[in-house]
């Protein structure tokens, strides 16, 4: 699970389709479910274990104040270089942080 994310300084993609079609490792976009406007997500291309991959699109739920009984993350409000708290843990695949728009491995 020790993936090197040095150089994974991502970029904001305006749509999920753009992230899916053109995104590179570390890129992100914001997404809100139309039927649940209170559910906001950051979608991030995280390392997926394939060294030659652009990463896989993963969803991380955002809240102003994280609920300790739920899987959600606090976002600093910076769309262009987001920082999330706590760490991102895709169990068995990758563990690290998004700090100022850069993926940093644990």
Keywords:
mainly beta; 5-stranded mixed beta sheet; 3-stranded antiparallel beta sheet; globular
Sequence of strands across the biggest β-sheet: 1-2-3-4-5
Number of helices: 1
Tell me the quaternary state: single chain
- Derived from helix and strand composition plus strand pairing, the structural class reads mainly beta
Our count of domains comes out at 1
Would you count the extended β strands for me?
A: 8
Give the SSE layout:
Blueprint: H1 16-22, E1 28-33, E2 36-46, E3 56-63, E4 73-75, E5 84-85, E6 88-90, E7 94-99, E8 102-105
Parallel strand pairs: 3-4
Antiparallel strand pairs: 1-2, 2-3, 4-5, 6-7, 7-8
Your description of this structure?
By secondary structure, the chain is mainly beta. It has one domain (16-105). It is built from one helix and eight strands; from the N terminus they run H-E-E-E-E-E-E-E-E. The protein is globular.
TL;DR?
The protein has 106 residues and is mainly beta.
């Amino acid at each position: 699970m020790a993936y090197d994310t040095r150089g994974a300084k991502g970029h904001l993609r305006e749509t999920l389709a753009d992230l899916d079609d053109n995104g590179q490792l570390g890129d992100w976009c914001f997404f809100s479910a139309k039927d649940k406007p209170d559910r906001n997500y950051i979608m991030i291309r995280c390392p997926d274990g394939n060294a030659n991959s652009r990463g896989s699109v993963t969803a991380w739920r955002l809240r102003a104040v994280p609920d300790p009984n739920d899987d959600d993350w606090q976002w600093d409000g910076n769309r262009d270089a987001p920082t999330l708290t706590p760490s991102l843990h895709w169990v068995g695949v990758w563990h690290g942080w998004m700090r100022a728009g850069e993926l940093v491995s644990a």
